[in-house]
């Protein structure tokens, strides 16, 4: 799979490889490198911003996580992104905003 990505460098392959590095291999640095490339190649897709937000959350980079997840939400809202952006707001001490996003997820359930 890595060889196929190396040869083609298409967005879907890079995105899949970044997902694999982050969720399966737990290699945050490599996943971050690849997902940043995906965002540059296809900034209108929401999914890479979700992965980017997850990476930043794991690294406790709450401001960066919040920004990535808000970008994802602006492209295609999802309960997962709303929940994660709420967690980022909470960890930044922005309790009112965190509550707003948590309630949005609860309201959709």
UniProtKB/TrEMBL annotation:
Domain of life: Bacteria
SUPFAM superfamilies in the record: TPR-like
Matches recorded under InterPro entries: TPR-like_helical_dom_sf, TPR_rpt
UniProt KW keywords: TPR repeat
ATP-binding keyword on record: no
Coiled coil ranges: none
TPR repeats (start-end): 46-79
Pfam annotation, one family: TPR_11
SMART domains registered for this protein in UniProt: TPR (SM00028)
The protein, known as: Tetratricopeptide repeat protein
Organism, scientific name: Bacillus cereus
Taxonomic path: Bacteria, Bacillati, Bacillota, Bacilli, Bacillales
């Amino acid at each position: 799979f890595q060889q196929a990505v190396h040869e083609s460098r298409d967005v879907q392959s890079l995105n899949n490889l970044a997902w694999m590095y982050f969720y399966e291999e737990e290699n945050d640095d490599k996943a971050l490198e690849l997902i940043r490339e995906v965002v540059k190649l296809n900034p209108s897709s929401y999914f890479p911003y979700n992965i980017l937000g997850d990476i930043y959350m794991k690294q406790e980079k709450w401001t960066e996580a919040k920004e990535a997840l808000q970008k994802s939400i602006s492209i295609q809202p999802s309960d997962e992104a709303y929940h994660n952006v709420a967690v980022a707001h909470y960890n930044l001490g922005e309790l009112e905003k965190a509550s707003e996003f948590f309630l949005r997820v609860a309201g959709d359930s």
